[in-house]
Amino acid sequence: MQNRISRIRVNKPLVREIVAFLSSQVGSYNDLSMDVLVTSPPRTHRYIKDLDLRVEIIPPNANRKLNFEGKYDPTNSVLYVNLPYFESQYEGRELEEALYKVVAHELVHVYQILYTRVRDNDPNAVNPTAGLPGLRERTPQYRQEKGDILHHRLDDNEFYPRLEDTINAIEFVSIRKPNETASIVSYVVGESSRPAYRSKHLKEPMEWLADLGRYAPKKFLKAVRKIKNEFPETAKMRTADFFRQVSPPDELSSFSNGTPTGKSTDLKDKGEGSQLPNGDGARNIGRPSPDSPNLKTKNLDRSESYGRKPAEGFDGGYVHDSGSGSARVIPYDSGFANNSSPLRKAGLIRPMRKLGGKNVPVDEKLWAEVQALAKGESNKPVSRGKDSVNPVNDGKGFETFPSAYANGWALAQYKRLGGKWKKQASSKVEPIKKDLKKASSSRVAHRYLRVLKNEE
After folding, report:
1. 3-state class of 361 per DSSP?
2. Which of 70, 186, 217, 293 is deepest in the core (most CB within 10 A)?
């Protein structure tokens, strides 16, 4: 069996069953143990039997000696829960949520052992070698046996359990603020600091992610990606891909809908997708798109419609349809490779010229005096009103002039003495844009042929 784990998902009904038992023993501790059946995880039913798990509550008189919230013993298949600790730290709803989180955390460890026993074909394996991050993402130099909290957070065995903790913590806070899930995720992963969400459940996940970002960046990127994938509300936080849409997708159009190969536009779809159309669209490959002949200009970046962040400064360009049903995009911004194409040189839209001249000082005399101090040509202070500037280096000026430091000093002193700048008049005139709607096709064709002739 291959070690291909996207996320270890625990059996939620089983978690609720264990939490209900633990909650019933708060304050009484009449029954300190229960037996449950852990079904084998997905893709392992044929290789391993279900696991008989025993849940034991650490009694109040022994919890002081045991410094942990919960622990799974794979040798004896026992899950220990330090219920007195939770009772002293939480109450009410927060107590149930904390118990849910620790039980789910330890069940992930149970599944790691089950995956290991299947992969290694060893029914008595107790050290997990499966259910871990990829080889390139692992940090074997950190081991929780060293007793340091940093080593515990960065241990490879703790990645998926702590990922489960983080997702559960976000869900707990989202229940109280149902319309702010995207903001909560952004706050937890460190992409924003406002608004701040205060919860005991978020403190440890945020510190875990911060340590991952500092000491294990590959793990951090993987954790953030998987957290966002669990919450469709965060779709607009994702980065736009390179694929662009030429015309709006419909059943008669064969253009790409802006989705990369292997991805689906359905946010709830976790399976593999296809970039090729299917159904009615597949029968119309090569047919003219019904909307392309009437297109003039289009916003080609439809990434925001599909839940991705639009590219900054994106310029769609001009959509040219030759009439054969295949519209071509003729971009006119500098970010595309075919800017020098003959059709673009035909000139429906001509490049803008840079207008305006350079900046010149309003008070030329003051600027000359400040520069003289910087160069060492004058040793007399320069004054304007109550402010004054003393000579530099006893009148010797800067050792190197012009330099970035010397120029910055001169600019700052000129501004402090009240000096201002203005734009020098330019003789260049802004060209007039040609109206796309009034541009005749014959003129464009003649220009196109003229450009081709010149290039030959």
Report:
1. strand
2. 70
